Every structure is written in C-alpha cells, then in structure tokens.
C-alpha cells in the first residue's frame, strides 16, 4: 500500500504547519497512520477522501482537539508536539499549545454558534473572553467581518433565525475575529442544502484570494479543483496521493484516487 511519509515543501513559502508522521489510534483502531503535511503561507490545500478515512481526525489533531500518539506538529516553526523515538509524542506546555492553537481558526460542518447570543455577540465573544479585547475595539472589527461575509444586516439576529448558509458565514466571521494565520475547515458545506453551499464557498474563495492559509476538508470537488493549490487524498488513515490540484484532477496517479474521483464527479 503506498504511503507518502513526507511531502514536497511548497516552493519558497514560509511553512505555517509542518505535521510529520502523525499516528493516532482510538483503542485498537489506527485512524491515522503516519500522515504528513506541509502547509505554506497563503496555500489552500484540500483534503479529500472517503468517509472514515481520518480527515476530520487529522484536522482535529492539528489544533489539539485530539492528541496524537506519534509524530510531530510544528506551527510557524514552533513545536506544538515533538516525536519521541519509540514512545509517545511529547506536547509543549499548556500555555504554548494554547498559543499555537490560537494561530488556527476552525470552521466545522455543524456551525456550533451559540444559540442564545446574537450574531454580533457570537463574533465578539472569544476576542473579549480569550484575547481580552475591549468591546469598543472588537465591535467595529466584528462589523467589518460581518460586512465581508455579507451579513452585517443580521448582526442583531439570533442564529435560530438564520439559514444554514448564513450560520456558516457567521461561523467564518467568528473564526476570523480571532485573527488566525491559518484557517481549518471541516466540510463546511456538507450540512447545507445545495442551493446554500455556493454562498459559503464564495466566502471561502474570497478568503483564499486574500491569501489566507487554508486547509479544507471537502466533498466539493469543484472547490478543490478551482480554489485549492494542492489536493491530499486520504484513505484508511493514510495519505494515498498528494498533488497540485490541476494535476490531480487531470490525471490522478493512484488507482484508489481515480476510483474515488469517478464516484465524486
Ligand atoms: N472519538 C472517536 N472514538 C473512536 N473512534 C473514532 C473517534 N473519532 C473518529 N473515530 C473513527 O476514526 C475513523 C476516522 O474518522 P474521521 O471522522 O476522522 O473520518 P472522516 O474522514 O472525517 O470521515 P467523514 O468523511 O465521514 O467525515 C472512523 O473509523 C471513526 O469511526
Ligand atoms: Mg469528517
């Protein structure tokens, strides 16, 4: 079975995330089997693959929603967790791990907005409580972000009154309010009706056009092809193929990638 344990560094770009040989098991089930990724500044990388292949787990490991067993993760050149030969990987101290995780914003399939807070309150909550920003400082910034995702007119609404696509755009604005250097997306459009996916994908494309560094788990092959610079195809906890997206969609090298694409397109 092919497994790529290292991948080409993106040419000339500062490295934002370097994950090497990540191993993660749940009980006896090895869900990630030596997964590696180098994400360069301003790069958009799409992670694709069948259900259960470990895509979400990989993203969750990157921002410490799961702990890894083996391997290492560096964020902007700093070790969040180091490999220990023959043993479990060793994490940096809690404060350092938290600080590195704050460089990453994450958007989930299920929005996860606070239902009892207005749109504006959702966006300003973490900057105030986590970063200690003053309300007067964050409110204009939050409004600017809401304008950017096309939802300034919804600032005083509760999430229950929004469509799925609107909720997801608020979730994106909320993540951006923390001023992350890197955005991680886990199937941000899978919970949406087809007619609502476009508005979210357009918001993501806009971010990509502004050179945000993005790692995007997605089933949207159009987005992967048109917006992502690189594609990583995972299956059974391994990276089976990694290629510039133009090459990948023109001619996947691995039989399993071809099979997957044939089902998706
Ligand atoms: N907390 C957990 N405990 C036990 N097993 C888990 C846990 N989280 C994930 N798994 C298992 O790990 C494997 C990979 O799951 P993961 O959610 O990463 O896949 P995925 O590629 O994101 O799939 P999908 O496309 O359906 O979202 C699956 O077999 C899943 O059942
Ligand atoms: Mg998933």
What does this molecule look like?
There is one protein chain. The protein is α/β, with parallel strands linked by helices. The protein has a single domain, classed as Rossmann fold, CATH 3.40.50.300. The protein contains 9 helices and 11 strands. The protein has helices at residues 55-62, 94-101, 119-129, 135-148, 164-176, 194-209, 221-226, 245-250, 255-264, and strands at 15-26, 29-40, 44-48, 70-75, 78-82, 90-91, 104-107, 182-186, 213-217, 230-235, 238-244. It has a 6-stranded mixed β-sheet, sandwiched between helices.
CATH topology term: Rossmann fold
The overall pLDDT, averaged over residues, is 94
Distance between the termini: 25 Å
CATH class: Alpha Beta
How many E strands?
A: 11
The major sheet is characterized as: 6 strands, mixed
Percent helix: 25-40%
Strand content: 25-35%
Organism: Achromobacter veterisilvae
Membrane topology: Peripheral membrane protein
Subcellular location: Cell membrane
Main location: membrane
């Amino acid at each position: 079975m092919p497994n790529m344990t290292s991948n080409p560094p993106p040419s000339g770009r500062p490295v934002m995330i370097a994950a090497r040989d990540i191993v993660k098991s749940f009980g006896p089930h090895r869900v990630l089997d030596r997964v590696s990724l180098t994400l360069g500044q301003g790069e958009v990388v799409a992670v694709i693959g069948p259900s259960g292949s470990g895509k979400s787990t990989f993203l969750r490991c990157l921002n410490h929603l799961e702990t890894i067993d083996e391997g290492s993760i560096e964020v902007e050149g700093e070790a969040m967790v180091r490999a220990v030969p023959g043993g479990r990987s060793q994490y940096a101290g809690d404060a350092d791990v938290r600080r590195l995780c704050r460089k990453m914003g994450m958007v989930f399939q299920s929005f996860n907005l606070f239902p009892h807070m207005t749109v504006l309150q959702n966006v300003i909550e973490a900057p105030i409580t986590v970063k200690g920003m003053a309300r007067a400082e964050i409110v204009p910034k939050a409004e600017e972000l809401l304008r950017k995702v096309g939802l300034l007119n919804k600032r005083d609404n509760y999430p229950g009154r929004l469509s799925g696509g609107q909720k997801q755009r608020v979730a994106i604005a909320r993540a951006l309010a923390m001023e992350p250097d890197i955005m991680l997306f886990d199937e941000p459009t899978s919970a949406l009706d087809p007619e609502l996916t476009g508005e979210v994908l357009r918001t993501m494309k806009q971010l990509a056009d502004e050179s945000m560094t993005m790692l995007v788990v997605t089933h949207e092959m159009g987005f992967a092809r048109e917006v992502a610079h690189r594609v990583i195809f995972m299956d059974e906890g391994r990276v089976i193929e990694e290629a510039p997206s133009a090459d990948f969609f023109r001619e996947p090298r691995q039989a399993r990638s071809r099979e997957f694409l044939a089902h998706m397109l």
